[in-house]
Amino acid sequence: MDELAARDPFLGKIFKKVKGIFSKGSKVADATNSVTSSQEQPQKRELEDAEELALREYYYDDSAHQWCPFLPLTSMTYQHEDLDDYSAVQDFDVTANGDIVLLPNTRRNCLNGHAHPRAINIPSIPGDPSAELVLVECEVARVSAILEGLRTRSHDLKERINTLYSPFIKVLPPEIVSEIFLFCLPVEESDPEKISKSNSEPLQLGAVCTVWRRIAWSTAALWANVILHITSFVRLPTQVLLLQEWLSRSGQLPLSIQLSCSEDMSWVNVSPEEVMKAIAEYASRWRKLDVRLPSACYRYLPPSDDTHSLPLLQSLYLKPPGGQGDRLHRVTIHNSPHLTHLALSCLYLRSVKFQWEVLTNLNLESFYIDETLEMLRQTPRLVDFTLRRILGGDDRHTLPEDYIVLPALEHLNIVNDKGADLQTLISKITTPVLRKLAFASEGSLPPPIQDFVSLISRSACTLESLSFTECGLLEQRLLILLRAVPSLISFTLDMPVGILNNSPLTDAVLHACDATFAQAKEVVCLLPHLEELTYSGIQAFTWSCLTQMIHSRTSQRMNDQLAPSTTVSKLKTVRLCLTHSTPEEADIIPDLKAIYENKSVQVHLQTITRPQATANDQNATA
């Protein structure tokens, strides 16, 4: 022991401390003899019963007048003051003679500085559970520290294993891994009506391991698309923090941001201010902005004027939940030179101001007809126009006296599910380059056939695609329309089932499109350029008329026999989804695919048996 003290001054200090502790143990006998029999008799008896234990592990503290445990010496550690690494930490044991024996540091190195495990042996302290509790808590703290250290070490080792042995990380450079990560992102939804509620793919990639997280966190393109769906005000502060961290990782890339909330949420006494402020900080990098929060949030949109612009903004969608609200909201975005796609829902035209002249795509929902005409008047570059849920009445805008010419409009899509009168709207516009026309309603609401015929006639447009969905259409009115669109290439009829006389595709219509029949009757063949026919609804035609019409448009020999005035294009695709009232009707369907498989026409046939369709027709007749 003296040799160790001479070799290492630090050990000498420890030896002195240990000898001092053992010297205090000699006071046990003196303290026992000093206890008076009149006042300390119970304590004396108790100490005599535990004399051997006290002499071995306890000493009497004169100043505190109580027995105290010796400090546990086994596996104590010391560390040189001038060394900070784990190699300076050394285990030692105290022998019965008071000598200190240095332990091998093999286990010490394995545990990277943590005390090596040993058996937990906490003696009971007679009559003093508080002191024993202190010992137990100290031991718990010591073991917890060891366990936490082992967990940290285990995490570090797993990270090293991933780095050293994972082929994905070891072979591929981070730049290639980043590109692979980008392929994990979902494709952006093209339909503005559809809403995504999560894009957690970057977070999932970062949860794999530390290396993946480091690469994902540094790949700005992973964070350029933001989707935040608010479902609870309790979680809103956490979501705002996540939004801020997400945006901070996007580098300097253009941003696509989508904000939405649950329809049943009440925003009374709650403000989306923090959410809007978080995205407003990056307004100069907005590329697409989709805000489906209450209109009260519009006040937090950054100003867009001569001094503040949105240079990258290309697409904007504003739709407050719950339908049309008050007129207090204001949206002013004057300086956005690249804003080409605009979608507005449940707003008032008097409350919004945009650079209308640069728009090419306009999607409106729940606007009055006079508001719609005023917006069309200001959008001369419009290419694609969609109008949904048209409101009856007006908002006191002056109707134009002359036609509104839309020189670039190619696609017109009208969804009149509220049954508004469209005559005022259609009669005020002219579309000289219109190529696609789609109309949809609900149930038996008929399309404005005569208004469409007038529009096509005065516009002198070459219509290529025509579609009617969920609307009531009679055979005679359909023939009137088809005579006005000889340039049609694609024709779609999606009729509702169960509506009386709502099966416009009849033998008369098929005969009118049959080139052979038209030449025999010396009449004009309708839809001579038709290449694609789609029909869904109740079958009101016979199979012989359908097959004859297809044959006249697919057989080269038949086409060669036609007069030049009756020549038609080859039919390429026929899609049929037929509804029957009985299984017997479905059983007599011919195998059209086998008939036309060698004539370069694709036939897709689906049948549905719905007995209730007949019942609905009978009720309607009665």
UniProtKB/TrEMBL annotation:
Residues 27-47 are annotated as: Disordered. It comes from the Eukaryota. InterPro entries: LRR_dom_sf. Residues 31-41 have a biased composition (Polar residues). This is F-box domain-containing protein. The lineage of its organism: Eukaryota, Fungi, Dikarya, Basidiomycota, Agaricomycotina.
